Amino acid sequence: MTTAQKLSFDVQLTDHARTAAEREQVLANPRFGQSFTDHMISIDYTEGAGWHDARLEPYGPLSLDPATSVFHYAQELFEGLKAYRHAGGTIVTFRPYANAARFNHSCVRMAMPELPEETFVESIERLVQTDRDWVPTTEGHSLYLRPFIIATQVGLGVNYPSKTYRYMVIASPAGPYFTGGVKPVSVWLSTDYTRAAPGGTGAAKCGGNYAAAFVAQREAVEQGCDQVVWLDSAEHRYVEEMGGMNLFFVFGDRLLTPALTGTLLPGITRDSLLTLAADLGLKAEEGRLSIEEWQAGCESGELTEVFACGTAAVITPVGSVKGRDRAWTIGDGTPGAVTTRLREELVGIQYGTRPDPHSWIHKIG
Ligand SMILES: *Cc1c(COP(=O)(O)O)cnc(C)c1O
């Protein structure tokens, strides 16, 4: 943990907050990432001076010089976590220090300055406290928090990373990520495109990874599938992750998830499920699975369930797989028992309806 001097936040409240009626209208049907709360957090960084000008201010557009470095060289990265309302009104987040630590790992890879973990968590607490009326009361809904950092130096020189940055947090009320309930998704095995290669940025939560992935996600949709599944860059054979979510394979009472080899994103949901699976008496392993093993396991009946996991969509079953020269189904088109059990356990901890044995819940107020 960094022991920098504590930043003091300047607070400037909006004088044009949405009315309660306007807010309720948004909360009645929150589409993921479409509406934002009344305020945002900004903190600036200048090489030599460090982090400064921490503030909570009205949500609104940024004014940036067209030559600002982020527009040209994509020095940017982000985080994603949620605030949940428990019965009785308490608002909490889930493992925010894990997001703070991953944010800093991503920063190191992208040659950006690290933010003290306490400041990351305080920025989230302040925004959620100020905009607490935006945390939904509807079961299964939450306030999605999006911390991010951009390079703000003006100039097109490419030899050095930016000397100035801005960290921000914005918040958006969220309903279920996939509309239509927990129903299995179909996936497309991408063999024409690669998400990440050894030594690249696959383990950093940077926007550039997404920019490079959209073409494959579009290909998945053209192939009649919901989501793309990424394979290793060398052989296009070993499973890495789904576009924006990690994958788990269920062999009866044994779970397998691809190991963190540096080319996939270390999901906090993934990490939590490895722990919860063990709590439930399941064997949870990190390893390697080829698409041939995936198909053969489903055909022999040994591989009983597959699911994807991430903060936004929590746990989503995978029901069918398609590639250039193969296609198969998993299970009977309904979420499997292990998938459902793990989902209930995790969601129960997040919403405060189950005990929190690992102290993952962080109270905000
Ligand atoms: C954020 C993300 C995940 C899931 O991480 P969580 O911490 O569980 O939300 C998985 N893959 C990619 C590419 C991601 O960006």
Q: Features of this protein?
A:
9-stranded mixed β-sheet; D-amino Acid Aminotransferase, Chain A, domain 2; D-amino Acid Aminotransferase, Chain A, domain 1; alpha+beta; single chain; globular; 26% helix; amino-acid biosynthesis; 8 helices; binds pyridoxal-5'-phosphate; transferase; 2 domains; 365 residues
Walk me through what this model shows.
This protein is of the alpha+beta class and 365 residues long. The chain folds into two domains: 10-174, D-amino Acid Aminotransferase, Chain A, domain 1 (2-Layer Sandwich); 185-350, Alpha-Beta Barrel (D-amino Acid Aminotransferase, Chain A, domain 2). The chain is built from eight helices and 18 strands. The chain has helices at 20-28, 69-73, 96-109, 117-130, 207-222, 268-279, 291-300, 337-350; strands at 10-11, 39-46, 50-58, 76-78, 81-85, 91-94, 142-151, 164-174, 185-189, 227-231, 239-242, 246-251, 254-258, 283-287, 305-310, 314-323, 326-329, 361-363. A hairpin with a 3-residue loop joins strand 2 and strand 3. Helix 3 (96-109) packs across helix 4. It is globular. Its cofactor is pyridoxal 5'-phosphate. This is Branched-chain-amino-acid aminotransferase.
